[in-house]
Structure formats: structure tokens, C-alpha cells
Amino acid sequence: MTNKQQQTRWQRLWAWLKKPLFIGIPIGVVVLILGLAAVQGSLVLSSTNSFCFSCHLKMDTIVQEYQASSHYGDGSNIAASCADCHVPHPYFEMLQVKIAATADIYHMMVGTINKQNFEEHRPALAEKVWRDMQANDSANCRHCHQGDNFDLSKQPQRARLNHQQIEQRGETCIDCHQALTHKRIVIN
């Protein structure tokens, strides 16, 4: 009896499967690395102001309001990008928001929201952003405004007092600073 005849069906199956594994595992690793690099690259690219401006510039006011704000920077201070304020910094939360934002891209592409009707939709869109910021205690604001970037002793007295009492009042940054970067939206 030959060696092949002595092998069980499972041994023959395993021998057959082993051969592609020697080639398949390295190929799988390379494909996985390329896939992860593509995901990371798209996350970085979609967090740039130029990516955000590619659609929002068509909305007229959003970009101009941001560029006129202190968050845009004046050359002497560090500018905050759109993503710094609108995208969470923890990786998996960022992924969640980026995936959900594909719906915005869809609506822009099919014309549900366009230059002509943007201001009609703007209050609902702004309110959603405010609710999200309240729910996460303005985590994106606090990501930058901490330590030396939020020195209470350097603030005017009224601001210092308000910032000291914010937690007692159950408020967060967005409760007072809704119109810091974009114009104040009136919700009817």
C-alpha cells in the first residue's frame, strides 16, 4: 500500500489546503496592509480643509464664515481645521462619523442639498451638530482648549467666571459658543 492510500480523507484534504496557504497567507497579508493603508489615506485626505471646501464652498456662506473666524487663524495662532471641530479625534469614533458622513456626500451628489436650498436645511443640520457636541461634552473643543490653551487666568473676568461655572450649570462649550465659527442659526 502506498503512502497516499494510507492517508485518511482529512489528511489528504489538509495536504491539498496547505499548498495554497503558503502562497495565500503572504498575499493576504499584503492585501490587508494595502487595504489598511487605503483606509488610513482616505481618512487623512477626507479630514483636510480642501476636501471639506470641495462641497461646502458651493454652499456660499459656510467657508466664508469659517475663514472670517478666529479658528481659521491669522498667521500668528494655530488654525483649527474643519475636521478638528466636526470629526471626533478617537479613531473608532472618527470612523463612525466618516461612515455616517457618506450620506452627506450622497445628498450633495444627487442634489437633495444644493446652493439654492442650503439655507433652508441649515438650521436642522446645525441643530444636529449642536446636539452631538452637547452629547459628547464638546469633546472636540476640549481636545484643543486644555492646559496652556485654556488658561483661565489669561481670560477676561466675565469669561473666567463663566468658564468656572460651566460644569455647575450643566453646560458645555457649544451652549455659549454656537456662533464662534459660523453665524448664529435661529431655530424656529
Structure characterization notes:
By secondary structure, the chain is mainly α. 63% of the residues lie in helices and 0% in strands. It contains 10 helices and no strands. The radius of gyration is 26 Å and the shape is elongated. The mean pLDDT is 84.
Summarize the topology.
Layout (H helix, E strand, L loop, with lengths): L2 H4 L2 H37 L3 H8 L4 H8 L13 H5 L4 H20 L7 H18 L3 H6 L12 H9 L7 H4 L12
Q: Which secondary-structure class do the elements indicate?
A: mainly alpha
- Spans of at least 5 consecutive residues whose pLDDT stays below 50 are none
Beta content comes to under 5%
The helix count comes to 10
The general outline is: elongated
User: What is the count of β-strands?
Assistant: 0
Percent range of helical residues: 55-70%
Q: What profile does the largest beta sheet have?
A: none
Mean pLDDT: 84
* CA gyration radius, whole angstroms: 26 Å
Secondary-structure element series: HHHHHHHHHH
- End-to-end C-alpha gap: 88 Å
Summarize it.
The chain is mainly alpha-helical and 188 residues long.
